[in-house]
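Lecture 7 notes: from sequence to structure.
We start with the chain below.
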Amino acid sequence: MGKILAVTNQKGGVGKTTSSVNLAASLVASDSNVLLLDLDPQGNATTGSGINKHDLKKSIYHVLTDRCTVVDAIQTSIDGGYDVLPANADLTAAEVELVKIKDKEFILKNALYKVIKKYDFILIDCPPSLNMLTVNAMVAASGVIIPMQCEYYALEGLTALMETIDGIRNTINPDLHIEGLLRTMYDPRASLTKEVSQQLITHFGDQVYKTVIPRNIRLAEAPSHGKPVLAYDKNSRGTIAYLALAGELLRKHEPGKAHNKTGSR
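Predicted structure tokens for the same chain:
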């Protein structure tokens, strides 16, 4: 049974999509079957996986509004080796349509139930806001990965996110927990970075991943080529960091491998 993890932070620019794409590719490199679900109307995880978001016939929008199944909408990242449930600006309309639907919080969970046995991990790249799309992701997921920069305002935003996670766990999804806090764009030379990093470890202990994601030019360049950094520059510091993160995740869960390799239907 696949592990569904929501990658979320309502603060933008923290490396959420970068982490979703590169963790997906790194898990595949470690012989896992992975589905990356783009739940952000900006569609950056889609383009970062080498898929043209402007040319989608079927997307996560069509899945959420019951116009097609997950299987119908899935594509494959050629360079990443993982499956992608893509998104584009059409997804903006989904929130309006979801309001009218009964049990709207469970739509994504119910849709993924039909494919969950095929994958070891399903990663959901959430939008940078706490809206109905994010709620659907947290109801479907068992764990939340929170990418964040080690800066003052990041701690403020973390409080609101924790309250949302607690609220969903107490009312809709009792299995939801913090899978891990991921320190991104990490610069060990900055005193504030080290200070905030220590505060995170003090408050969250082993929920903070040991792996940190450094500031790395190759990580910044890879999306414009439609590739995970592993396919763009396999020797970069960014590649090494995300492979280490995948290793942490696998050691924690040691999932049984799905029978079908990624990309097979």
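Points to note: Confidence is low (pLDDT under 50) at residues 255-265. The two ends are 17 Å apart (CA to CA).
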